[in-house]
């Protein structure tokens, strides 16, 4: 699956809409179905050029996905420094961190000082060349660089300007935001954790990567709309909004609470009254099928020897047989879902007596044979070593010139006619000259002048070279 970075040259943009085989205007104006073999008709976003002004995690997640889909992503980084994550959580001395490499695959890197007059000129050329500018700077930073919407739209009315911000318009719009701030402000933290403990943040980066996903969706939709309108637009994904979208079942429960207790929450069965807001529900299932995390064989020494067990109503009888409680199939206290709700704690404790006699994989095997949905708690070590994830390209090993081999997450979306080939992340400024000459058409002499101007090199280096 992994592929070495190949030099990309300026792609010829094909007409997005053809009159052949459809109406002249609108979404039906499609070309005839391709007769090329599946996967040989180019990638989904081939020809789309992204000016990637993102850093840290949320924005880079978005642009990496677009790159996986075939877009040409040109990442602009500050000379000498680059994306701050290149040096954060470093595990190999002198090499780009995994934080950076795992979020910036399939991209090209150009260094530009966006506040340098020559740097601004290069950026203006890139704006004219690209289809989408993606950024996740602090509120106002893009404007302070002179890259206002008015400026961009005047240079390139077709350009889509896509931003991640912490909050949407309102009292907090000027605030800087990181992952956990968004998890807290988006309703996730207040509804995660155990009832008698403090709010918890989750390991899954729903604020950063989750919002990057939302933004990618917005960009693709804007590209599609542009086919009809011919003009770009601004796309905003606020991290608070993205987290809330992912936590929408809890807003559902907030409204249900006005009509009575949440009977599927285990606190109902325990006779603990509900307050005014949705409580933390531990490992209760978020849906209508009660579930809980149960110990499996080896739990005393292995922190991940657990399984998520769902007591889905249609397979209740199979569960009773498995755990040696066939009498529960007809017992009025257990036979029907509403009768079970006040007894969930006891039910799961009983199921756990059975799961503790098996490994999580044995439980998975036995339960799935009779259609009982269960989820083994997989450690990251197990996931990294899982052959099926390697086979599908979800976990990919890539080679990097300074850090060597590393694992990354490939495209989680699999498409039958757009096959992702995962490439390593670029070194800082690796493609600066290539982009200046082949993409923007600067001559060798102009590139030499740009180099000494300090617009693409770190200040000290620029001065030294100029001297
Ligand atoms: N050349 C010159 N200057 C550059 C540059 C370049 N190529 N790239 C960035 N800069 C400058 C910016 O212009 C900005 O300068 P000013 O403050 O003078 O305008 C400066 O670098 C810092 O940018 P920033 O404020 O965005 O960065 P920060 O580290 O202070 O804040 C973050 C980081 C993430 C909190 C903030 O960018 C933010 O809130 N972003 C939006 C929400 C978001 O995406 N959060 C998720 C981050 S992942 O956890």
* Distinct helical segment count: 19
Binned strand content: 5-15%
The largest sheet has its strands arranged as 4-3-2-5-6-7
Q: What is the SS-derived class?
A: alpha/beta
Number of strands: 13
Quaternary structure type:
single chain
Q: What distance separates the N and C termini?
A: 46 Å
Characterize the overall form: elongated
Q: Which range best describes the helical content: under 10%, 10-25%, 25-40%, 40-55%, 55-70% or over 70%?
A: 25-40%
Bound molecules: oxidized coenzyme A
Largest sheet: 6 strands, parallel
Query: What is the average per-residue confidence, as pLDDT, rounded to a whole number?
Result: 93
Low-pLDDT runs: 1-23, 462-467
Q: How big is the Rg? A: 26 Å
Topology:
Blueprint (H helix, E strand, L loop, with lengths): L1 E2 L45 E5 L4 H11 L3 E6 L20 H4 L5 E5 L5 H13 L2 E4 L5 H4 L4 H7 L4 E6 L13 H7 L22 H22 L4 E5 H8 L1 H9 L9 H4 L21 E5 L10 E5 L5 H7 L14 H4 L3 H12 L4 H10 L4 E3 L3 H6 L1 H6 L2 E6 L3 E6 L12 E2 L8 H8 L4 H10 L5 H8 L1
Parallel strand pairs: 1-13, 2-3, 2-5, 3-4, 5-6, 6-7
Antiparallel strand pairs: 8-9, 9-10, 11-12
Helix pairs in contact: 1-7, 6-8, 7-8
The site of oxidized coenzyme A has 25 residues, from helix 1, strand 3, helix 4 and strand 6.
Q: Which characteristics define this entry?
A:
elongated, binds oxidized coenzyme A, 34% helix, 467 residues, disordered C terminus, alpha/beta
Structure description:
With 467 residues, the chain is of the alpha/beta class. 34% of the residues lie in helices and 13% in strands. The protein contains 19 helices and 13 strands. It has helices at 58-68, 98-101, 117-129, 141-144, 149-155, 179-185, 208-229, 239-246, 248-256, 266-269, 316-322, 337-340, 344-355, 360-369, 380-385, 387-392, 432-439, 444-453, 459-466; strands at residues 2-3, 49-53, 72-77, 107-111, 132-135, 160-165, 234-238, 291-295, 306-310, 374-376, 395-400, 404-409, 422-423. The strands form four sheets. It has a six-stranded parallel beta sheet, with helices on both faces. Strands 8-9-10 form a three-stranded antiparallel beta sheet, with helices on one face. α2 (98-101) links the parallel β3 and β4 (107-111). α1 packs across α7 (208-229), α6 (179-185) packs across α8 (239-246) and α7 crosses α8. The longest helix is centred in the middle third of the chain and has 22 residues, at 208-229. The chain is elongated. It starts with a strand and ends with a helix. Residues 1-23 and 462-467 have low confidence and may be disordered. It binds oxidized coenzyme A (CAO).
